[in-house]
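My main concern about presentation is that the manuscript never shows what a single data entry looks like. For the editor and my fellow referees, an illustration may be useful. For illustration, here is how one protein appears when written out as sequence plus structure tokens:

***
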Amino acid sequence: MKIIVIGAGIGGASAAIALQRLGHDVVVHDRMRENKPVGAALSLWSNGVKVLNWLGLGDQVAALGGAMHHMAYLDGRTGDELCRFSLAPVTDQTGQRPYPVARADLQGLLMETVGTENIHLGRELVSVVDDGERVTATFADGSTDSADLLVGADGARSVTRDHVTGAHEGGPRVERTYSGYTNFNGLVTADPAVGPADQWTTYVAEGKRAAVMPVTDGRFYFWFDVPQPAGLPYDRADGTAPLDEAFAHWAPGVKALLAAIDPGRSLNRVEIWDADPFPTWVRGRVALLGDAAHPTAPDIGQGACLALEDTFALATSLATNTVSAEDSLRRYERSRTARAGDLVLRARARGEETHGYDAAKTAAWYDSLRGNDGSGIIRGIVGNIAGSPVNLGVGSL
């Protein structure tokens, strides 16, 4: 079959690779005009890494992954260590080492594997028409493309989703909900004044967070969470000014991190939104994947991993069901909506606990971190991974 994939992000590109390796003719369209990934890095927990292994990219992805052996929480204002523990149990219990990766590195690898000749940039989707036999995508430049199936991996503001839910025909529209905080992220050179080079280090206080994770080439992926209203003005020329104000009185490690940021080189500002889980991912020969199907906050680090799980489930369904293409997509939908919805709500609950919306709840969380042996935190991380469908996968695709 010919299959159109809308979106060349982690979900869209990984789906394209899987579908190519099943023998399909795959064409990817993306609205971006050049390969400039949004966001500095992402967490690849064991379930996400296993999908990439299944795609045959295990060695390449491992080479991109940071050596993250420990996890620690520190008091944001004093720098005092609240707890520190090994992440080895995650590997032991899941059978795969997790690691953070720079988003540009991973997306570059995936797009290269898809093949640049199969990816068309500068194509902004405006409509989808499914006549029961062929699906036609129309783009803002007036061009069109038709195929047997269309996979919408076009992100949280998905145009494909409006087709699937019928919103473009006056049906219900999936509305996003502001999570209550803004995230600033980027890449800096690793600095022991901030945290050890093999550790996920998080400073917490006042409902705010400042954290670093190691990625390759001696770098830290950093992020700051600042609870604030949506829609506040920000000009890129402001650089780190909002962070300097929000974290001016924090520990020396946080000040060292702020001093290391080069806003012109690597600093992103993202308001965090999610959406209530919804059951309709498929309509006829059109299916949703990734953030188009489950916009989620990053509070449990499963956004990219869920998109990779979607890839595994979609490819498996198309490879193992023979009634019809539409039937295969419906089975894909049924295999994914409950799990994805559960993790979206877990991430939302985690964000509500950590960002001070209920001061007593966040204070109790801080208290629970003092002297914590990590067992409960590990149990939560593994719990997010345990239900992954990829645990059934064997070998490479």
About this structure: Residues 62 and 99 are 8 Å apart (CA to CA). The chain has one domain: 2-176+274-392. The longest strand covers residues 176-189. The mean pLDDT is 95.
